[in-house]
Design a protein that fits this description.
Blueprint lengths: L10 H10 L15 H4 L1 E3 L6 H6 E6 L2 E6 L10 H16 L5 E6 L4 E3 L4 H9 L21 E5 L2 E3 L1 H8 L2 E5 L3 E3 L12 H4 L6 H10 L3 E2 H7 L4 E3 L4 H13 L3 H15 L3 H18 L1 H11 L17
Parallel strand pairs: 3-4, 4-6, 5-7, 6-8, 7-9, 8-11
Antiparallel strand pairs: 1-2, 2-3, 9-10
Helix pairs in contact: 1-10, 5-13
């Protein structure tokens, strides 16, 4: 199905544009092929201290900020430290006039982001801290005034899929896949239930949220969730090239365009999120959230309530 490879003919042109933007003496190199000293990488120290410092890597490449979720042993799952580090990094990027576009990707070849770390989520639930989000956003990405590109290098599941939805443009490796398994674990996809029906047909959104089955990168491209589909080895080069194209335009015009499109897409989003919060509280009251997380930790099938409130929440 060659239509999926539609972006590839422009790849060499993008590479040339990126090379022209590199410092003198580096024009023959891809921005991802130079030595570490040229990449000027650094790591963010967030509220979580050294743990967070190791979980998010930040690189400045000219006008582009590259944020790499770096928990490959946990499929780059969003721990509290990583979530805070990401939020801090996005705010820093948004406030830096020298930075124009951000690219978010995952460390390793297997995962972009596996969403919330269910082990930590289960521990917090047992301690009486219910899951939830204060807004339909992940890490402030959706609220960022500047463009953010998701370079999806592997699985994007649950909150990881939601993080990609919060980005403005999604470029995926053709080996990536997506899923919302929350319902099978007694959870509500708190951001996706509000964003997804605004981005794809209702039936497709229902299928993803209710069945929780895997969706291939090709299907995500067909639905318009992914804008470009490329081989894994071309992912970061392509994302950087797209970022450079955007960064070369008027930052004021780019910001205004994004603000207007988001105003249209997010109309009544806050009201919809309040409904989501009520439903999430109702779900917690059934005990299904706790049972789903326990079953996941114990590697067994969950035994959910019949739809009515049960006493299991207080076990």
């Amino acid at each position: 199905m060659r239509g999926i490879d539609r972006p590839l003919p422009a790849l060499e042109m993008h590479r040339i544009m990126v090379r022209l933007s590199c410092p003198a003496g580096a024009a023959s190199e891809s921005p991802w092929e130079g030595p570490p000293s040229q990449l000027r990488g650094r790591r963010l120290r967030a509220q979580g201290g050294e743990a967070a410092n190791q979980e998010l890597q930040i690189e400045r490449r000219g006008r582009i900020s590259v944020l790499t979720l770096s928990r490959p042993e946990r499929h780059n799952a969003l721990s509290p430290d990583l979530s805070q580090a990401l939020a801090d990094a996005i705010k820093e990027f948004d406030d830096d006039p020298a930075q124009r576009v951000a690219v978010i990707t995952g460390a390793g070849e297997r995962a972009f982001c596996a969403g919330a770390d269910l082990k930590i989520l289960g521990e917090r639930m047992e301690a009486g801290i219910p899951p939830g989000v204060s807004s339909p956003d992940i890490g402030g990405v959706g609220a960022c005034r500047k463009p953010v590109i998701a370079a999806i290098n592997g699985l994007a599941v649950g909150g990881g899929f939601e993080l990609a939805l919060c980005c403005d443009i999604r470029i995926a490796a053709d080996t990536a896949w997506f899923a919302f398994p929350e319902a099978s674990r007694g959870l509500l996809a708190a951001v996706a239930v509000s964003l997804l029906p605004r981005m794809i047909p209702i039936g497709a959104a229902m299928d993803l949220l209710l069945a929780g089955e895997r969706m291939s990168a090709a299907e995500a491209w067909r639905l318009g969730l992914v804008q470009m589909l490329v081989p894994p080895e071309a992912l970061l080069t392509t994302a950087m090239a797209k970022a450079e194209v955007i960064a070369s335009s008027s930052p004021t015009a780019v910001a205004a365009s994004k603000k207007m499109v988001r105003a249209w897409r997010d109309h009544l989003l806050a009201e919809q999120h309040r409904v989501q919060q009520d439903l999430a509280a109702e779900l917690v009251s059934t005990g299904d959230v706790r049972e789903g997380l326990r079953a996941f930790a114990e590697k067994r099938a969950p035994s959910f309530a019949d739809g009515q409130k049960s006493g299991r929440n207080g076990d």
